[in-house]
Structure formats: C-alpha cells, structure tokens
Design a protein that fits this description.
By secondary structure, the chain is an alpha/beta fold. It is built from twelve helices and eight strands.
C-alpha cells in the first residue's frame, strides 16, 4: 500500500473525507507560495496538490492559466521546484502531490525526474498521460514509491474504469464536468448517478475535482466521495486579496470555511 492509500485508510478509520487544495508553484511569488503552502498545511489539509506551470495546458481554465503564466514569467522550472521542496518538505505534514503535464517530465528524462522527485513527493497527476501509454512512467513511479492518480470523467466509457484503477495507485480523480477547471456556481446534476456506476466497478478512493468553489458544494459532495479537490477557487481568492495586508489571514479563513 502506497503512502496516499495509507492516508485514505487513516481518514476512513476516523470517519473523515480528504480535503485536497491546489496551488500553482511560484504563484504569486515564490516567497508568497511558500507562505500559502504553510497556511494550507496548518489549516488541516489532508493532501496538498502543487501544480507545475505549463505553457500549453489542456485541462486548466483561465484562472489557473493566469497563475501559471505569472509563475512561468518568474522563471519557474523543475530544478527550482525540487530545490524549494528540499528546503521546505520537512516543515509540511500533508503529503504532497505534484500535477504536471508530461512534456516537462519527458524533457527532463524519466530517470532524472524520479530521482529528484522521490524524496519529496507522495503522488503524481499527469493530465495528458493516458494509462494505455504510461507503461514506462508507471514502472518508474512504482520503483520510486510515488503514487499515481488518473482521471475518470462523465464521458469515460465504463469498460475503461478497471484499466484506470489499475494505473492509479493513489486515488481516482473524478472530473465533475466536461471542460476545463474553474469555479462554478453549480455542478452537473448527474454527478452522483455517474458515481454509482464508478463505484460498482472500482474500490479505490475517488475524489471530486473541477468546479468546487464554495462551502455548500464542498459539504454536499464530501458525503459521496472520498475527498474533494479545490483549485481555481483558491487561486481566484489569492488574486482578489493578494494586495491586502492581511491576505494570508483571509486565505486561511477561506480554507477553513471551505473545509468546515
């Protein structure tokens, strides 16, 4: 059992569901990102998803794209990420999951990437890597004891569920909508009926992401999933409050409100 599954078992034994916030590495600055990371950890996040900026994303909506462009303009790269994690990892209690597109990893080389990543990361999410095409990647991840997370969406065919589960050693990331990330006032009404189909086929933890932006949505869907993932709403909150003196305080209050 990998570290992520161990954490889900721990949460299940306590009758809890996972709260998984997302931040873009290097946004709004590296210094502020570090401060925000500590806020997420101190506010009781069960995992923290760190997004690695990429210039040509397929799943990121305009809010996260904005944060990624700011970070890229500041010169973010994998060497800076791993140097940063080496310095801060021991201060963070929550397991860290990296979300990155495959191209930067491929450019770095799988062996080089995993050698640098394994001391600091518990999990990896690669939105543009299909389980059918990820044999080498999955072998390396297993060898370095890093869990993998793959997606199921409303349009995923049921015959692919078991394949996706076999590839996912961490959890299944359930995409709530047919589209990109971004805060939404409401989520599709058929999420729960589709979840029932997923549950019949797989036993892995399933976490809901894409679109959760308020306490009502978080509370509603926590009941049915093993965890919820919140990203764009947090980035939006940072953008709106960044220039205030107490923006870290407001950010923490927002996290506690979402996760209450």
């Amino acid at each position: 059992m990998g570290k992520i599954r161990e954490k889900f078992k721990e949460l299940r034994d306590k009758g809890k569901k996972a709260f998984i916030p997302y931040l873009t590495f290097g946004f709004p600055t590296l210094k502020d990102f570090e401060a925000l990371l500590y806020v997420l950890d101190s506010a009781g996040s069960d995992f923290i998803e760190i997004g690695f900026p990429f210039s040509d994303p397929i799943a990121d909506g305009p809010v996260i794209q904005t944060s990624s462009q700011v970070a890229l303009d500041r010169g973010v790269n994998f060497l800076r990420l791993f140097s940063f994690l080496k310095r801060v990892k021991r201060k963070i209690k929550a397991p860290l999951i990296l979300m990155s597109y495959y191209n930067p990893i491929y450019d770095m080389g799988l062996d080089n990437f995993f050698k640098k990543a394994h001391p600091f990361l518990e999990g990896l999410i690669i939105p543009d890597l299909l389980p059918e095409e990820g044999e080498d990647f999955l072998k390396k991840a297993k060898a370095y004891n890093i869990d993998t997370v793959f997606f199921i969406s409303p349009t995923t065919q049921e015959e692919r569920f078991s394949l996706i589960e076999r590839a996912s050693s961490g959890f299944i990331y359930y995409i709530s909508v047919t589209g990109v990330t971004g805060p939404r006032k409401s989520l599709p009404s058929d999420i729960l009926s589709h979840l029932k189909k997923v549950r019949k086929k797989i036993s892995s933890p399933v976490c809901l992401g894409f679109g959760i932006s308020n306490q009502f949505q978080a509370r509603k869907f926590k009941k049915y999933f093993d965890g919820i993932i919140v990203g764009s709403a947090l980035i939006k909150k940072i953008i709106e409050t960044y220039h205030k003196k107490n923006f870290l305080k407001e950010f923490k209050e927002f996290i506690l409100w979402l996760n209450s």
